[in-house]
Amino acid sequence: MLDLLVDILSVPAILVGLIALIGLLLQRKSISDVMKGTIKTILGFIVLSGGAGIITGALNPFGELFQAGFNVQGVVPNNEAIVALALEKYGTATALIMVFGMLVNILIARFTKLKYIFLTGHHTFYMACMIAVILVVAGFTGANLILVGSLILGLVMAVFPALAQPTMKKITGNNNVAFGHFGTTGYILSAWVGKLFGKNSKSTEEMKLPKNLGFLRDSSISISLTMAMLYIIVAIASGPAYVEGNLSNGQNFIVYAIIQAITFAAGVFIILQGVRLILAEIVPAFKGISEKLVPDAKPALDCPVVFPYAPNAVLIGFLASFVAGILGLFILGQLKLILILPGVVPHFFCGATAGVFGNATGGRKGAILGAFAHGLLITALPVMLMPVLGNLGFANTTFSDADFGVVGIILGKMADSLSKGLITTIIVAVIIIIALISIRFKNNQKEIANEI
Questions:
Q1: What share of the chain is helix, strand, coil (3-state, %, to 5)?
Q2: Which of 8, 231, 270, 296 has the fewest CB atoms in 10 Å of its CB?
Q3: 154 in Cβ contact with 300 (< 8 Å)
Q4: Residue-level pLDDT at 215
């Protein structure tokens, strides 16, 4: 039963489909509207996931070519890989922390000003896994492990969307949708860098091109051409023998590189269509939940939700973040530290998002410099995170996105210097303080309204 529940809650399409179903039922919509809204929401997420799968499938060979062509070895951050290793030992704790953590998130949204319900199920699952690992290493067991883990998970599921929301308003132009992806620290950094250095910089979406280059305004074309150049470079660096012998099944290495680049662009195109479909359904459906169950609640959605608002920033952010990852790799080598190879998948999804956030506050300069700062951050954080993961720290992979590093490092340091009882007390106290501040804020609003 627990496995079934976790399977449902960790699959974004099913989780968000259930939320849409509940929202539409609470609004007493017709059977026809309920069926249409629920199925189209699930369909949108499956389209988005399909696009993400295509991109991942195209980027994995790029990572292999990069390592082979430039002869570098090290740790490759990858959430899926580290979670797969951890689940054998920490599976039950992960599942329970995830389920109860989502309940804590809903309670926090219901009774505090943090009105965000985190709907990125797979990221919730990954964060639950990391929290379980660190708490077990720190000596937590049994009910105390589940209680503290669930409180921490529910808290971060509410706090990080709140931190991202000011920039989300700038990106989307409204306050209807929140951001739910555990790379938020890096995106906030990007937005801050954009604001600091991008004054008067034009948006990445304002491209002025000669008439004969007007086709580059189409993001699918510009992404295809840019990625084709990158793929051809790493394919040449790896050599035809390696490409045709290990990856392309004998297909010419240049042809293979071009096909992978255009496949990547196709994945981006599919993601954009999936996001548009989701937004058209989930926002109206979520109205029922925000009106009846959790007043003023906002759905916090996965990082591709921002891609349609600045498609050029998506590509710029990826490239800037990846270049920063290469520079970070060189710096780590000079410092004789663990080498963190630039994982192409996290640098795309997270770097692209950082580009959109940086563009929102600082235009083109913000997209480039913000995403570059993000790339350095997700290179440095895994080095500091690995020691707190116990035996998993010796694995050839680790968590990739910024919030995993931030939460993991803070929790690990607390575990090193504080008792289990004090850690529990601090987490409970933080939640109580947030609730009390919210109550105080509501009371002040009522007093002002009465005076008026």
A1: 80, 0, 15
A2: 296
A3: no
A4: 56
- Residue 29 class from Cβ within 10 Å (0-12 exposed, 13-18 middle, 19+ buried)? middle
What are the distances in angstroms from CA 415 to CA 87, 136, 159, 334, 421?
21, 10, 21, 31, 11
Query: For residue 18, what pLDDT band results from cuts at 50, 70 and 90?
Result: confident
Tell me the pTM. 0.84
Tell me how far apart the alpha carbons of residues 379 and 356 are, in angstroms, rounded to a whole number. 20
Round to whole Å and give the CA distance between 352 and 347. Answer: 7
> Amino acid letter at 107?
L
For residue 116, the cross-strand partners are 298
| Cα–Cα distance measured from residue 292 to residue 277, given in angstroms and rounded to the nearest whole number | 24
Q: What are phi and psi of 73, to 5 degrees?
A: -130, 150
Handedness of CA 241, 223, 371, 182 (dihedral sign): negative
- Annotate 292-351 with DSSP letters as a single string: HTSTT-EEEE-GGGGGGG-HHHHHHHHHHHHHHHHHHHHHHHHTT---B---HHHHHHHH
Within 194-308, strands assigned E span: 298-301
User: CA-to-CA distance for 304 and 277, rounded, in angstroms?
Assistant: 12
What is the DSSP secondary structure assignment for residue 201, as one 8-state letter?
A: P
Length of the chain: 452
Q: Of 214, 221, 227, 341, which Cα lies nearest the Cα of 269?
A: 221
Burial of 429 (0-12, 13-18, 19+ CB in 10 A): exposed
Quick one: pLDDT at residue 214? Answer: 57
**Each residue of 304-330: pLDDT tens digit?**
999 999 988 998 999 999 999 999 999
Backbone phi, then psi, for 275, in 5-degree steps? Answer: -65, -45
